[in-house]
């Protein structure tokens, strides 16, 4: 059972990376990005295209994609999403749903529906022995470390930096924040840009650990959304904890039957909504 729990935590760290960008955008703008999963897939295919065009290794392609997703997120927010932000969440949901459809169809037209993966340079074949009978893959361990560092970094940014204070100010009261000299639209753009950097990193790592296809976006969005809800909206460590719980639940389910994994994760999500609808850690904490 120890190996089941470890595998569950490693799987949960993947979901945590998926969830952080979604949690940041919701925490700052109260915006649920329906295209979140498709943006993850877009990042993976962007890295694949960069590697095919240049012959670069996965690390160089990852740096390029993460760097490009920062201005992409900023421009998308300033040009499109800022126009639909309001107390009514429906316009943003409709726009991001449309963006999801556009991304899926563009990827299908360019890359077809064939699943693809990112060449990790043999990293996905390296295993680190823990005991005589138990080993951990180097790539899952890397994803685990990146998810912890990203979560800690976001939490530190929100509580100890000027940009984090700006994020919290416009989140609490954008009108009052603008009276103090903050440009809410610029702050929202920076939040989306950082969220898209996280999305890019998560998408590239997902492409390294398994295959991706243009139709994977909705399922990745579902895992991200469940992790954020279970952990508590607006909490980065809550998102990480919720993702870890989902990963362990799925791993336990697959231990009993390979078809029960995803179902066990959904069951945890539904139980959370029934017992603790505010999530495990509903507020961002120091």
Automatic annotation (TrEMBL):
It holds the Pfam family BPD_transp_2. It is found in: Cell membrane. Keywords: Amino-acid transport, Cell membrane, Membrane, Transmembrane, Transmembrane helix, Transport. InterPro entries: ABC_transp_permease (IPR001851), BCAA_transport_permease (IPR052157). The chain crosses the membrane at residues 6-28, 40-70, 90-111, 123-150, 187-208, 220-240, 260-276. The keyword DNA-binding does not apply. It is a multi-pass membrane protein. CDD domains: TM_PBP1_LivH_like (cd06582). Belongs to the binding-protein-dependent transport system permease family. LivHM subfamily. This is Branched-chain amino acid ABC transporter permease. It comes from Cupriavidus oxalaticus. The lineage of its organism: Bacteria, Pseudomonadati, Pseudomonadota, Betaproteobacteria, Burkholderiales.
